[in-house]
Every structure is written in C-alpha cells, then in structure tokens.
Amino acid sequence: QLQLVESGGGLVQPGGSLRLSCAGAVGILDYYPIGWFRQAPGKEREVISCISGTDDSTYYKDSVQGRFTISRDMAKNTVYLQMSGLKPEDTAVYYCARGRRWERHCMSSLYDLWGQGTQVIVSS
Fold first, then answer.
1. Mean pLDDT of the chain
2. Beta-bridge partners for 70
3. β-bridge partners, 115
C-alpha cells in the first residue's frame, strides 16, 4: 500500500524527548530520500531534517541541529526522528514525506508522498 504513517507524537515537557516514526510498506522507503517537516499554527510548513536516498547523508535545520537525529532502518521499513531537548517552539504537526528515488541530495528532492502527520506539543 502506497502510504506513509507517522507515529510517536504527544505532549512532552520542555527538555523532554520523543521519537517519531515514519513507516511504510516493504520497499516503499528503500533508496528514497525521506524528509521530516513540521507546521506550527499560523506558520508555513518547513523542512527540519532529511536523509539521502543513496548514502544516508543528512540535513538539519539550524534550529534543530544537535537536538534532533534522523535515521533509517530499512529492515523495519521505517525512518525515525529522535528529538531531544524539546522546546515550546518545537510544537507543531510533524509530517514525513518521500522524495524521488535514488536522489542523493535530500534538500533538493521533490516530495510527493506524505503522511497524515503527528502532533507534538511541548508544554509544561
């Protein structure tokens, strides 16, 4: 089935951690760049991290660099976003998306398969 499913969102206190998962059917993530995006209320959707479709090179937005880690587990058909040191400004709906197969540079890929999103709320 051609769909991506995010999970792992929730309510967390500032400084806490969450791990988001982006899962798909067997093979639909293999060798595709995968991006994590977020959209906060009243703001445009932004890319915060992505991973290459070929060499697993990664990109992070400056505001999450050092706090978030993207990784891929091909055996589980899942891409993860480990988030730590969460801040209230990280509150948003988080989406994963798939780019064009075999594309190395995930920042320049065209993302055309999207999940439904998972809500992350960082609040005390």
1. 96
2. 81
3. none
Largest Cα span, the chain: 42
Rounded Cα–Cα distance for residues 48 and 92 (Å) = 12
- Pairwise CA distance, residues 48 & 54, whole Å: 19
pLDDT tens-digit map of 50-93: 999 999 899 999 999 999 999 999 999 999 999 999 999 999 99
47 pairs with which residues across the strands? 37
Q: Rounded distance, CA 111 to CA 43, Å?
A: 19
Q: What are phi and psi of 107, to 5 degrees?
A: -70, -25
Contacts of range 15-19, beta carbons closer than 8 Å, 24 or more positions apart: 15/85, 15/86, 16/84, 16/86, 16/122, 17/82, 17/83, 17/84, 17/85, 17/86, 18/83, 18/86, 18/120, 19/80, 19/81, 19/82, 19/83
Which residues lie below 8 Å from residue 28, measured CB to CB, with a gap of 6+?
Answer: 2, 4, 77, 98, 113
- Please report which confidence band the pLDDT of residue 2 belongs to, taking 50, 70 and 90 as the band edges: confident
